[in-house]
């Protein structure tokens, strides 16, 4: 796989060069874990929450190199992509193990009350009496409901279920989450 910058023409690079050199935030949405076939397709472990997300995208970044998505297909839960500039098995092998990103502008709009985890990490967590408990350090998914991991002022961590009974309000602009705790939640 060739490393290209915006100074090179599309013909020299063999694929459309995306504006990767412009300072922007990239969001990791997957990782290339293997190759598929002989024509340069790559298998993706998807981190985006929806494997169908790749059909909505025109392009992705592998590290800092932009690639147009030419084809998307699936094998069970595995996403298989054909990307511009990766045209044979050898080029696909070179991409194995690399992370896949999108630009911030490719993020879908969220509904009212939905937030990106990256925007929530670090916000203050305040109980219903006004005491600052600590900061949100992680969101644990893949359970019946999400769990908010809060790093307390003393360094200990607690988990708060992401349900209405415990989460009173989330204000991303103020960087604050208001919670109602039950007895025994904090050791």
Quick recap:
With 187 residues, the chain is mainly beta. The protein has helices at 10-13, 53-56, 89-95, 117-120; strands at residues 26-36, 41-46, 59-62, 65-75, 78-83, 99-103, 124-127, 132-140, 147-152, 157-161, 167-171, 176-179.
Keywords:
187 residues, mainly beta, six-stranded antiparallel β-barrel, six-stranded mixed β-sheet, 4 helices, 12 strands, 41% strand, disordered N terminus
List the helices and strands and how they pair.
Layout (H helix, E strand, L loop, with lengths): L9 H4 L12 E11 L4 E6 L6 H4 L2 E4 L2 E11 L2 E6 L5 H7 L3 E5 L13 H4 L3 E4 L4 E9 L6 E6 L4 E5 L5 E5 L4 E4 L8
Parallel strand pairs: 7-12
Antiparallel strand pairs: 1-2, 1-6, 2-5, 3-4, 3-6, 4-5, 7-8, 8-9, 9-10, 11-12
Notes on the structure:
This protein has 187 residues and is mainly beta. Helices cover 10% and strands 41% of the residues. Strands 1-2-5-4-3-6 form a 6-stranded antiparallel β-barrel. It has a 6-stranded mixed beta sheet with strand order 10-9-8-7-12-11, with no helix packed on it. Strand 8 and strand 9 form a beta hairpin. The longest helix has 7 residues. It starts with 9 loop residues before the first helix and ends in an 8-residue tail after the last strand. The N terminus is likely disordered.
Proportion of residues in extended strands: 35-45%
Q: How large is the radius of gyration?
A: 21 Å
Give the number of DSSP strands: 12
N→C terminal distance: 53 Å
The succession of helices and strands, N to C, reads HEEHEEEHEHEEEEEE
> Mean pLDDT, as a whole number?
82
Q: Tell me the number of helical segments per DSSP (H or I, 4 or more residues long).
A: 4
- Please state the overall shape, judged from the principal axes of the Cα atoms: elongated
Question: Which stretches are poorly predicted, pLDDT < 50 over at least 5 residues?
Answer: 1-23
Biggest sheet strand order reads 1-2-5-4-3-6
Query: Helicity range of the residues?
Result: 10-25%
Largest sheet: 6 strands, antiparallel, barrel
Instruction: Please state the structural category.
Output: mainly beta
């Amino acid at each position: 796989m060739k490393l290209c910058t915006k100074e090179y023409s599309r013909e020299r690079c063999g694929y459309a060069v995306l504006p990767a050199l412009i300072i922007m935030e990239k969001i990791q949405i997957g990782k290339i874990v293997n190759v598929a076939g002989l024509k340069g397709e790559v298998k993706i472990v998807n981190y985006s929450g929806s494997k169908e997300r790749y059909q909505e995208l025109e392009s992705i970044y592998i590290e800092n190199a932009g690639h147009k998505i030419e084809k998307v297909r699936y094998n069970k839960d595995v996403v298989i992509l054909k990307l511009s500039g990766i045209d044979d098995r050898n080029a696909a092998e070179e991409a194995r193990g690399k992370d896949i990103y999108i630009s911030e502008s490719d993020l879908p709009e969220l509904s009212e009350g939905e937030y990106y985890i990256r925007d929530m990490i670090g916000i203050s967590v305040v109980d219903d009496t006004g005491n600052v408990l600590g900061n949100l350090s992680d969101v644990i998914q893949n359970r019946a409901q999400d769990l908010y991991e809060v790093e307390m002022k003393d360094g200990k961590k607690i988990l708060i279920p992401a349900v209405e009974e415990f989460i009173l309000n989330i204000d991303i602009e103020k960087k604050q989450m208001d919670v109602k705790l039950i007895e025994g939640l904090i050791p």
